[in-house]
Amino acid sequence: MAQKAKTSWSAADSAQLYGINQWGGGNFSVTAAGDATVSVPFPGGEVQVPLPEIVQAAQDRGHSLPLLLRIENLLDARIRLINESFYAAIKETGYQGSYNGVYPVKVNQQSAVIEEVRRYGAAYDHGLEAGSKAELLLCLANLNENGLLICNGYKDREFIDLGLWANKLGYRCFFVIESPAELPLILKRSANAGIRPLIGLRIKISAQVGGLWTETSGDRSSFGLSTAQLIATVDQLRELEMLDCLQLLHCHLGSQIPDLEDIRAGVREASRFYADLATEGVPLRYLDLGGGLAVDYIGNQSKHSHSRNYQLSDYCRCIAQTIKDTLDLNTVEHPIIVTESGRATVAHSSLLFFNILDVMRYEPISIPVQSPTTAHPLVARQLLIYKNAENVDLVAGYTEAMENREQIRELFRAGQISLRERSLAENLFLAIAQNLNERRKQLEQEPITLSGLQQSLADIYYGNFSVFQSLPDSWAIGQMFPIMPIHRLNEYPERRASISDLTCDCDGKLDRFILSAGESPTLPLHSLIPEEDYILGVFLMGAYQETLGDLHNLFGDTNVISIRINDDSSFDVTKEHSGDTIAEVLAMLEYNPTAFIEGFRDNLEKAVKHGKIDVAERRQLLSQFTACLGDHTYFKHEEF
């Protein structure tokens, strides 16, 4: 499809191109000056802060790129929005119960995140969910006085004892039984402590949801009781006169569920379980529907696995209305609704910034006026196609040029064409493709056979970051995150590129991008300006990415800052953390950095002894080696 002319390009065109007004959710936008901004509402009006200004403030404090930014205002806004949307839905539908939100700490366990959830969530009695003993300790140290504590996962004696004492201290701490084997130990430890436990039962529902995590629902999901196991557990508690401890029914609908009708079907089935158990006299008070609330990463409000076809208000109203309608048929009292929205709580609040270090361009270096007299006929034919590129049929010309290129490569492998001839042929193909691509841009409807033309010419931009450390889901499960430049957005982005990271791994790349026109294998970018940083931002990456990252090629954590935006457009840096040094990363792998220095010193001493270096060079090398151990693991710009 024809593109807007370069000379008339504006920041509004960039906003449209990258889709920031769709996936940004009102949190991010673009100024007329070409800067991406973060927007925060205040009673006196909306405040916008340019992202390049935040990056500069971090660099002024000694935090070089790559940089992870956490924006406390956005985390607060999501907590407020989730709770108040449920309050509104409850009022609108006439639901007679209440709502209690819970944050599953596995989604992002970083202290800055948990402490902010505790601080801001206190007004809503927002609770926490733990899935391991370490997470339980974290929760107990950060739970609000009236917060709800949900304990999922496998539970050993210490785990159970801690949860029982939490109940003794006045917290609402529920042990969610996901396997029949868990109940005997809970009963034994509670009897020993003389503390009656609060118990929840996790059920498996047959309703299957769409999206990337369909296996978390349905009969074959890893966790939860079958219908028969559920009934047997209820009967056992009744026989032991402990049925009063069973107050919560848990059902994990799924994760990142894009279709509201899937959510409705799951809630309806879970509500039927709840209604029948209540009719049998089980004193249930809570219905925990787990996760499922999706983030619209691509902003097109669809059933795509990275999107959702509903708003938060629709989600809340669907849950409240479905439970009400189901339970009213059996005149069952409406329970406290619990959801464990993690992704939707934290995704918007974290961004990654990285600079581009270099670019590889796929364009011809030099083209002769005529082919050498000794050139192979296929090479001569490529030159002819190049010269007539303005007149040849687009599809036929591109197809022939590709076929010629492959034949020439095969001839080279067979020793029938020289390296210089192949070099000429490769240059000619790039020149042909470049010319044909300019004509393709003017087409209103692009033939499918030309879909690879633009990609074959795309640059590779080399970014100062590690996919495996900072964006592991993009590699592991194909998760797409919005990515765009944070400045120069009032300039026409004349280049198309994929992005490669610093790792020595072919998987360390980004080649699926979100644009307003749809998914793209390349990202529109600007040409690099010498001696100037070109900075890209990765948005909506606060869920899972900060704790799933690994040390591929020994790239450690990036620098991190947390900020709070004020109503006068200023911002405070509330927390800052320097990224891992090389010594710290080596220590994580059980190396002793001190021993490294001693070993290197011994090698230098041997080199002095054998006359390879002198004593002054020894001192210089040892000093440099020691200094490197204290450096961060990422690339740093320095004068030559």
Q: Helices, strands, pairings?
A:
Layout: H1 11-18, H2 20-23, E1 28-30, E2 36-42, E3 45-50, H3 51-60, E4 67-71, H4 72-93, E5 99-104, H5 111-121, E6 127-130, H6 133-142, E7 148-151, H7 157-168, E8 172-177, H8 182-193, E9 198-202, H9 227-239, E10 246-250, H10 260-279, E11 286-288, H11 312-328, E12 336-339, H12 343-346, E13 350-360, H13 377-387, H14 394-413, H15 419-440, H16 453-456, E14 459-463, H17 467-470, H18 472-476, E15 483-485, E16 495-500, E17 509-510, E18 513-515, E19 518-520, E20 523-525, E21 535-538, H19 545-548, E22 559-565, E23 571-577, H20 582-588, H21 593-609, H22 615-629
Parallel strand pairs: 4-22, 5-6, 5-12, 6-7, 7-8, 8-9, 9-10, 10-11, 11-12, 14-16
Antiparallel strand pairs: 1-2, 2-3, 4-13, 13-14, 13-21, 15-21, 16-17, 16-20, 18-19, 22-23
Helix pairs in contact: 4-5, 4-11, 6-7, 7-8, 10-11, 13-14, 13-15, 14-15, 21-22
Question: What would your notes on this structure say?
Answer:
- With 640 residues, the chain is an alpha/beta fold.
- Among the domains are: 94-341, Alanine racemase (TIM Barrel), CATH 3.20.20.10; 377-454, Methane Monooxygenase Hydroxylase, Chain G, domain 1 (Up-down Bundle), CATH 1.20.58; 582-629.
- 39% of the residues lie in helices and 18% in strands.
- It has 22 helices and 23 strands.
- The strands form four sheets. Strands 4, 13, 14, 15, 16, 17, 20, 21, 22 and 23 form a ten-stranded mixed β-sheet that branches. The protein has an eight-stranded parallel β-barrel with strand order 5-6-7-8-9-10-11-12, surrounded by seven helices. Strands 1-2-3 form a three-stranded antiparallel β-sheet.
- α7 links the parallel β7 and β8 (172-177).
- α4 crosses α5, α13 packs antiparallel against α14 (394-413) and α13 runs parallel beside α15.
- The longest helix is centred in the N-terminal third of the chain and has 22 residues, at 72-93.
- The mean pLDDT is 93.
